[in-house]
Amino acid sequence: MKFIWLHSVRLYLSVGMFFYFRKIKIHNAKNIPKDKPVLLLCNHQNALLDALLIATKCGRFSYFLTRAAVFKKSLVSKILNSLQMLPVYRIRDGWSNISNNNAIFVTCSELLKAGEIVTIFPEGSHNLKRTVRPLSKGFTRIVFDTLEKYPEIDLQLIPVGLNFEKAEAFPDSTALFFGVPILAKSFVSENRNEDVVKLKTKIQSEISKLTTHIPLDNYDETLKKLNNLQVDYLNPNVVNNCITNNFENGETSRKPNLKKIRLFFKFLLIINLLLPYLLWKFIMQPKIDEVEFISTFRFAFAIVVVPIYLLIFGFLLVSLFSFKIAVIYIASVLIISLFAVKL
């Protein structure tokens, strides 16, 4: 039953993402072993949407360490648990809760021993800045505790780079880069403290190659120059080389000017989804305090509210006119949304 549930959710999310993102590019997903324990270590920009992208595109059903704050409501907690998300506590959740992480870390070790895949965002929090922030040591504890308990385990560490053209915008485009697997046992020596430092340094370096990494020194100035060059943020290797080479030979992402056509179809889409649009624009969106959550809530709103609205409106058309008219209407809205998003 769990297998059917996870497949159904992944299929539904994949369809939703097809209509939400202009482009989704996946690079080297074949790097993820199908029959070994894997720890995916990814940068974190776009709140829960980061986890949903990995969940639908990595090729395996992963467990996710997710900040405990989102598990507060009982119903939400049950849903998240059914989707293989595990709560992890931070200092801001209260010192008394930090000890709860011990059980979660043990659970991760047991999952890895069973050959499962676990995803961690080792930066510890999300941020829209195009930089890889210092990594927390929580993931290293899972690695070394697992190796200590199960020294023969063939644990693979895979760095992941998530890239967005403009994370808070709609429609957006994204690119996921899966790095080369790293053998966890290769970091084990007699000095665990040194091993932790070496592992953190290695993973941060590898993630920084798979996503745009702008050094915090002169961050705003560097970002402005990259935007003026119209670099392709879905190609982090080129962007990082552009930064290293003092902004020379930076490939641009200039596209055909379809702005007027895109606006026309966006207007048509808004007209056909006027009630959901007004609910989002004037009720839901103003309540979002963190800009990093805008895309996550927009996506969740779109895949829940819009289908319900279309079904209700479709039933209304059936009762007033005919089934054929209802089908034509729903099909027309889907086609319009494709033009509004994909152009």
Gyration radius, rounded: 22 Å
Instruction: Estimate the helix proportion, in percent.
Output: 40-55%
User: CATH class of the largest domain, please?
Assistant: Alpha Beta
Annotated CATH architecture of the largest domain? 3-Layer(aba) Sandwich
The mean pLDDT is 92
Strand residue percentage: 5-15%
Structural class call reads: alpha/beta
Order of helices and strands: HEEHEHEHHEHEEEHHHHHHH
Structural write-up:
There is one protein chain. This protein has 343 residues and is of the alpha/beta class. Strands 1, 2, 3, 4, 5, 6, 7 and 8 form an 8-stranded mixed beta sheet that branches. It has 3 domains: 2-210, Glycerol-3-phosphate (1)-acyltransferase (3-Layer(aba) Sandwich); 212-255, no CATH class; 259-342, no CATH class. The radius of gyration is 22 Å and the shape is globular. The mean pLDDT is 92. Helix 12 packs antiparallel against helix 13. The chain has helices spanning 2-20, 48-57, 74-82, 95-98, 101-113, 138-149, 192-210, 219-229, 236-244, 259-272, 274-284, 294-320, 323-342; strands at residues 21-27, 38-42, 62-67, 85-88, 117-120, 156-164, 172-178, 182-183. Helix 3 links the parallel strand 3 and strand 4 (85-88). It contains 13 helices and 8 strands. It is 52% helix and 13% strand.
